[in-house]
Amino acid sequence: MSVLDRIESLKSKHIELENKIEAEEIRPHPDDDLIHDLKRQKLKLKDEISTLAAQ
Question: Which InterPro entries would you find in this protein's record (predicted)?
Fold first, then answer.
């Protein structure tokens, strides 16, 4: 897998996490722990994307 392919894959996962966060936030009783975990995962992906893009 090339670096560009890896970046695109990570961007897809980033978007999926964003969608999950949005879906959880609009629920009547959102799970704050789940939202926090999803945001942490999303930030980790963003950092990895930035690192790969800088290479």
Answer: DUF465 (IPR007420), DUF465_sf (IPR038444)
Q: Structural domain boundaries of the chain?
A: 3-47
Give dist(CA 4, CA 10) in Å, integer. Answer: 10
pTM flag (> 0.85):
yes
**Contact residues for 23 (Cβ-Cβ < 8 A; gap 6+):** none
pLDDT per residue over 10-55, tens digit each? 999 999 999 999 999 999 999 999 999 999 999 999 999 999 999 8
Measured distance CA(53)–CA(12) in Å, rounded = 15
- Rounded to whole angstroms, what are the CA distances from 48 to 20, 32, 42? 20, 24, 10
